[in-house]
Design goal:
Number of domains: 3
Oligomer: single chain
Helix content: 10-25%
Structural class: alpha/beta
Strand content: 15-25%
């Protein structure tokens, strides 16, 4: 007994010493949908882990138990090797590091513009990743986010992305096409290191820094375009054996400092063209699907938008939508899908064929006023006598024989007279 009293006293003293503000309450993790482990903090859901048994084409839920999903923690989808595609909802604003690390069969990922940053190592070792949609709104791509994505063929960096960390697309050996939209300001060190299939690169005027080794060992690179706004880091184009042409947006005087730059031997032994749109690689367009060069007005064959789509299906009571993403330039548009409404076999049916929700139906309440009384009896008689009155057919069929007739009137009258009868 003394020991118990001593423990209670100690706890009381501790409470007196420790201020309430110093006590941290941590939300407990819960499970949802068979795969997702999550916590709720400040009425927002953070997905902390996803069972590696998850498979196929996955659309991450935008809500769990009525709370919006706003965050996905570090390593959440780690080693989900049966995952083939993933679409992040636009409720998510924050994604941690290493989120899809080692998802070796992931082929497609859609990241909406609501996500501020694609963080470090997000898609590291996603060897099968072929298609990545980066929404306009993402502002930063972290270091090595796409390291070793060996199957990635093309990527569009939207204008909202201001910086790319170091080695972002390092060892993306199949990468042939990179569209860097005007608005990007920094290409990190080694950003496209060893992208062996990359042939032409057009760097917009907004880029002020091309990092060290940014395009080093791009063995197939034949031409590059950049402007006098861009600083070029050490060995940015080192070991680009096929690089023959630089299309330079700037004057001859400005060009000299790059041509004579001993720290960039990859640029000193090539042919330079200044002050023109010489060569198609130097044309600039509003987006990758645009036809007319912004500088010289030269027209090319219109590539046209190529859309992938994501559909949120409508329910009986809520609208849905289909959102289309252009894989070439990131253009999006949305088509609203109206709610499909409840559907029943007939007026007697109370279970919706679409959603299986059972509608509210109180047997005997023919006029749907929430009460069973003489008014219901009277309106049934009026209905049977051909009056133009509205009744709830399922509620009026008190004997559940799928007919409205005098038997229903009789049973309802007996019920109102407190006879020993039941309404079905």
């Amino acid at each position: 007994m003394k020991k118990i009293l001593s423990m209670v006293l100690a706890i009381v003293i501790m409470i007196g010493i420790v201020p309430l503000g110093a006590v941290t309450l941590t939300a407990s993790a819960e499970r949802w949908g068979g795969y997702y482990t999550y916590v709720v903090e400040n009425n927002e859901v953070t997905i902390t882990n996803v069972d590696d048994a998850i498979y196929g084409d996955v659309i991450v839920p935008s809500q769990i138990n009525g709370y919006p999903v706003t965050s996905i923690k570090d390593h959440a989808f780690y080693n989900c090797k049966s995952l083939t595609s993933v679409t992040i909802p636009d409720s998510v604003t924050n994604m941690g590091e290493w989120v899809f690390y080692n998802c070796k069969n992931l082929k497609k990922a859609v990241i909406p513009g609501s996500v501020v940053c694609i963080d470090e190592y997000t898609f590291y070792n996603c060897y099968a990743l072929e298609n990545i949609v980066i929404g306009d709104g993402v502002t930063r791509i972290g270091a090595r986010a796409f390291l070793d994505c060996e199957s990635l063929v093309s990527v569009v960096i939207p204008a909202s992305v201001k910086s790319m960390g170091y080695n972002v697309f390092d060892d993306c050996h199949a990468l042939e096409t990179v569209v860097i939209c005007d608005g990007v300001t920094e290409i990190g060190d080694g950003a496209f290191l060893r992208c062996k299939s990359l042939k032409n690169v057009l760097i917009p005027d907004s880029v002020i820094n091309i990092g060290c080794d940014a395009f080093s060992s791009c063995e197939s690179l034949e031409s590059v375009t950049f402007s006098s706004n861009s600083g070029v880091g050490l060995d940015a184009f080192y070991n680009c054996e096929k690089l023959r042409t630089v299309f330079f947006r700037g004057s001859d005087e400005e060009m000299i400092k790059y041509v004579m730059d001993a720290e960039n031997s990859g640029l000193t032994k090539v042919t330079w063209y200044a002050n023109s749109c010489f060569g198609a690689s130097n044309h600039t367009y509003d987006h990758n699907c645009d036809a007319e060069c912004n500088v010289c007005g030269d027209a090319r064959d219109i590539i046209g938008h190529r859309y992938d789509e994501y559909t949120k299906k409508p329910t009986c009571t809520t609208d849905g939508y289909t959102q289309y993403y252009c894989v070439g330039c990131g253009d999006t548009y949305t088509i609203d899908l109206p709610a499909i409404n409840h559907a029943y076999d007939d007026e007697f049916d109370v279970v919706c064929n679409n959603c299986e929700e059972e509608r509210l139906c109180v047997s005997g309440d023919a006029n749907s006023d929430g009460k069973i009384n003489g008014r219901d009896y009277a309106i049934i008689l009026q209905y049977l006598n051909g009056w133009n009155v509205k009744i709830d057919v399922a509620a009026t069929d008190v004997n559940d024989d799928h007919k409205i007739n005098g038997q229903d009137c009789s049973i309802l009258m007996q019920y109102l007279c407190r006879k020993n009868v039941e309404l079905k």
